[in-house]
Write a structure and sequence with these properties.
The structure is a homodimer of 245-residue chains.
Chain A (H helix, E strand, L loop, with lengths): L16 H25 L3 E8 L5 H7 L9 E5 L5 H4 L5 H5 L7 E5 L8 H4 L5 H20 L2 E9 L2 H10 L12 H8 L1 H14 L6 E5 L3 H17 L10
Parallel strand pairs in A: 1-3, 1-4, 2-3, 4-5
Amino acid sequence: MHKLKNTDTKPPQETDKEACKLKTGELQEQLREKQKILYAQGEYSILVILQGLDASGKDGVLNDVFSGLNLLGVQVAAFKAPTEEESRHDFLWRIHQKVPGKGIIGIFNRSHYEDVLVPRVEKWIDDKTIKKRFKHINDFESLLIENNTVILKFYLHVSAEEQKERLTERMENRTKFWKHNDNDWQVATKRDIYLDAYEDIFEHCSKAADWHIVPADKNWYKNHIIAKATLKALEQLPLKYPDLK
Amino acid sequence: MHKLKNTDTKPPQETDKEACKLKTGELQEQLREKQKILYAQGEYSILVILQGLDASGKDGVLNDVFSGLNLLGVQVAAFKAPTEEESRHDFLWRIHQKVPGKGIIGIFNRSHYEDVLVPRVEKWIDDKTIKKRFKHINDFESLLIENNTVILKFYLHVSAEEQKERLTERMENRTKFWKHNDNDWQVATKRDIYLDAYEDIFEHCSKAADWHIVPADKNWYKNHIIAKATLKALEQLPLKYPDLK
C-alpha cells in the first residue's frame, strides 16, 4: 500500500533541472516518431489518465508533454462535474464514449476515478457502492486492455505548500484568474481525506493497470516522468508501419 | 440448459387468437400509463433487448408492441455490422452509448449478443475470447442494473419453416423487397450452429438478467408475451409521480 504522506513530491535531490529538461525534449521527439507508427498501424491505442488534487498540474501535462503530437491521432477529454444527461446514466457511460480508438492516444484530464473520490469524501455514496465501483472500473479497464489499449495512470503528487502557492497565484495572476475556484480551497482543507481515498484506489484499482505516482512539485520533473513512461509504453508495443496493400 | 430444438415456436394450442390480441391491446394501454410515470419520475429505466434469427420478427415488435408509447421517453437503437469507427473500439463501446438514461425505455434491435454469435459461428474469434466477452457482458449488464435499469432480454424463437416462409415473402412482396438479403438464406442454413451458440449465451449470460424465450411463429402471440413481460417489469418498480417541488 502506498503511503502518500511519506512519498516525495519533489525530484530526487541530485536531479539536474536543465539536463532533465533537455532529456524530456528528446523523449518528446521519440514520442512523436512512435506516434506516427501507432497511428499508421491502427492496431493499438494508449489511454493516459491524469489524476491529482486541484493545481497538481494536470492541464500543464497536456501543454508541456503532449502538445507536439500529431493532433489527428490525439484525443483529449476533460471530465468535470457530470451534466444532467450524464447523471442519468451509470458513471462509466460518459467515460466509455471518450476512450481512444485503435491508433489513437487518448488523454483523460480527470476520469472515472473522480467518481470514487468526490462522492466518497462528500459521503454521497456508501462504502458498498464504492466497492462495486472499484470492481466495475477494473472490469472496464480490462475490457479496454483486451482490446489493445495500454492504460497509463498518473497520480500527480503535489505537496500542500506547493498546492497552496499555486491556488494563491490563481487569485493574483490575471492570466490565471479563470482557473480560480473558491471550492478548490475548501477541497484543499480535506487533503488528508483525499489522500486516503487515493490510497484506497491504488490498492483496489491497480489490477488491470498500475498507477504511477509522479512527484509533481516541479513541473519539469513531472513532465519528464510522464514523457518517459509514455514512451516506454509505446516502445513495448510491437509497432510497425503496415506493408503496402 | 435450454433445449431450443425442443422448445415451442408456436402458441399453446388452446390459445384463442382474438382474445389474445384484445388482451394485448389492454396491456399496451397499461404500458402507456406506466411509461408516463417512469418518465416523470426519472429514476428507473427499462432496456428491452430483442434477439433472434433473421425474420424472427424483431422489427415487428417495435411497431406492434411499443409504437403507442410517448416518443419522448423511448429510444430505439438498431445494431448492424459495426462501422469502421465502431470496429476501432471494444465491442461494448457502441452499445454503452445507446443505453437508456433514467426515465427512458430503450429498445435494442439486436445488441451486444451479436458479438458472441456471428464472430463465433464464422470462427473469427476463438472460444477464449468468447468466454471473456460473456464475462464482460455480465459485468456490463450488472453496471446498468445497479444504476436502476431493468433489462428484459427476449429471444424470438421461430421455426425453420416459418423463417423460410418469411424470407421467401421478402423476395415476392414488393413492400418487403428492402428487407431481402441473400446472406440471410446462408445464415438460415447454419440454424443449428446458431441455436447452439444461443443456448451457450442463455447458459452463460443469464446471471445479471434472465432470458425470455418467446414462441415467435405467430406475431400476435409473440407481441402478447413481450407486452406482458414488459408491463410486469414496470409494475415491479416503485413508480410514482414526483411530489410538487
